[in-house]
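Before going further, it is useful to explain how the protein records used in this thesis are read. An example of such a record is reproduced below.

***
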Amino acid sequence: MDEKDKKVLLSIARESIESAITDTPNEQVQIEITSPGLKEKSGAFVTLRTHKRLRGCIGRMVSDIPLHKLVSEMAVSAAKEDTRFSQIKSSELEDLEIDISVLSPLQKIDDPLNLELGTHGIYIKKGHSTGCFLPQVATETGWTKEEFLSQCCSMKAKISPDAWKKKNVDIYIFTSEMVSEKFNKNG
């Protein structure tokens, strides 16, 4: 993505969140989408923080809608629907930091230890249980590869911490391009 695309995605996220939190009508954020890249179907996550504390993170690994629409939906979901947190309040908008992670396609791997910490995110699937960590989680936590995989199994997929070592578990890696901005109500 070029800088213009990044700014457009951040504007979409910011305007979508503000509209949802302040109950201001929003006929699908009024930003013209001209970039073909923003019209492609790609997975994405939106992470929200206030004062460096996580306040919401919602996303989809794959999408059946264009990236710009997915970012709008995930931004609102992260602000209002992440069940781990209370809804973002209008008083928090001034201090809200937005991170958008645009995901590469998933790539199944046979040897989970071939992942590169800080470069690859992981998506683990066993039956109906799934979990994922974005690439930056490894950097933020300082975990080893084994810890990264084990924590994703137990914390996210709710399966045995050593399930990643077994043949009946599918493990995928992906990369992400991150776009970040501190919230600025005045644009």
In short: The first strand starts at residue 44 and ends at 50. The chain is about 30% helix and 25% strand. The chain has a mean pLDDT of 92.
